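Exam prep: given the inputs below (a chain plus adenosine-5'-triphosphate), describe the expected output before reading on.
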Amino acid sequence: MVRGVSQLLSIGRYGGRAIQLVWTTNRRLTIVLALFTLISGLVPAIVAYAGKLIVDTVVLASRTGAPQDRWAAIGYLGFEAAVVAVQTGSRQGVALCQSLLRVLLGQKVNELILGKALTLDLAHFEDSEFYDKMTRSRREASSRPLSLVGRTFGLVQDSLILMTYGGLLIQFSVWAVVALMVAALPAFISETRFAGQAFRLFQWRTPESRQQNYLEWLIANEAPAMEIKLYQLGHMLLDRYRAIFLRLYAEDRDLTIRRGVWSYLLSLVSTIAFYGAYVWIVWETIAGQITLGELTMYLVVFRQGQTAFASILTAVGGMYEDSLYLSNLYEFLEEEVPEPLGQASQGVVPNDGLRFENVTFYYPGNENPALKAVSFHLKPGEKLAIVGENGSGKTTLIKLLTRLYSPTSGQILLDGLVLEKWETVALQRRIGVIFQSFMKYQFSVGENVGVGDVVHLSDRDRWSVAASKGNALPFIDQLSNGFDTQLGRWFKSGRELSGGQWQKIALSRAFMRTSADILVLDEPTSAMDAESEVQIFDRFREMTPNQMAILISHRFSTVRMADRIMVMSAGDVTEQGSHEELLELKGRYAHLFALQAAGYQ
Ligand SMILES: Nc1ncnc2c1ncn2[C@@H]1O[C@H](COP(=O)(O)OP(=O)(O)OP(=O)(O)O)[C@@H](O)[C@H]1O
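Solution:
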């Protein structure tokens, strides 16, 4: 009972929200849909009553043989035909409005979901539970709001049918009305129960569905295709894909069979009630208590009324299911995203540069810190290089600097002001960054450079300057369409670049941001040939006279040019100084430098 009430409350809450969503999607269509629904609800009783008039007049006409009775029967027939035409029209109208609304609503909900995704922190994307939530809301939520609204309107329509039928049937017997309603109840109870079970199954299996999506992506996409072929992983992946399906299918099949069997058994109750009433009506007709026309009308009312009632009850079950799915959507849309509080677009100590003060950072859920009390000061125009073994925290440091994450303790200051107090956009506009795992957009060459500064996305002059700094211009000039060449294989006449060429594009992207006075380069030249690398770093100072630069590299030849070098190990800064100072220190840096130098001799 309590569960039933909570189910109804949940339907009410989400039903209201779904209607609001549909209403804001397209008001005119919603109103038209409501009108057609109203007509579809009122017309069936008129048709049933017209049927009674026709039969009674036919019986009368066959008895009297009078022409006016004959014409009256034909007249009623014409009337019924007209009403049926209206009924068909309104049904079509409902279907039409619903299919238009479905498209609009699908788009709207997807935009809401994608818009929300844009406001999320990076940490959200790295959290598998959150990912599940997003997948769940994307998979079903775009069709569910309309389904809920469709069912709500259906409910109104069926209720109208039922009320008008009830008005006709009650003249025969109140008990007949009661019997029909009671007989439909068991089917309703079983529907809501199975709807809940289906939903819980869907919730549990999101991780599996995501695994399936991932396997699909591996098998049917261009990026992994080369490895999948060469390592002959295809069959293994397909087997995994199939195994997940078979496991899910077994659960689905059990539920579907149970649902089907119960629905059938419980619908028998309704059938028995219906035929019981049928016998009763036939009996009364034979006894001459009701006319032949009334018999016809009651049978129509009885049969269709019962269908309408059953469909109201199953609609409530379906609405419950829809509202459960919608709860996923709203749970995702309402996920709290802390509002960035910072407002500042200027520091309190202009030209103080960048300071890390005892910055410690733990990734969510990690027990070991990725950075341990890191401190350094970078002055305007200064170039800092960071070296260290894999996993020592170099990239993490950059993620904190760019505010993709916030320090667990300690603070980072730019021009004397902690990063949290900066307005995020103002801060990010001051930073030009290229990550190790930069994006290869399936856009044109020019746009791939232009995304570095979205305000100047299509500025061809800037593309050229940036590409020249990133040493990309020579090979771009050789492409058939220059900056207009489409990159990647997804779209027509797209072409692929080599790893080093892509890296040059990514480096140029960082140079697009001319307003940036902090340049962050995470392994910017690791895939480039030796000559390109030398060309870039020979001119690096000249190209970035006033910019602070943080350069991460495993190549000591590039690191040398920095004013200061920071050696990191397991989240700690273990050595700091210029190339010469560190060599003199004869510590880790000197050791690694000697190793690399020996390799070149
Ligand atoms: N998103 C993440 N979630 C949890 N832990 C992470 C994440 N990214 C990195 N780590 C962990 O944090 C530590 C520092 O990683 P980081 O990427 O900063 O290393 P790095 O010095 O840049 O390494 P490399 O030279 O391989 O690029 C590593 O132990 C890594 O496993």
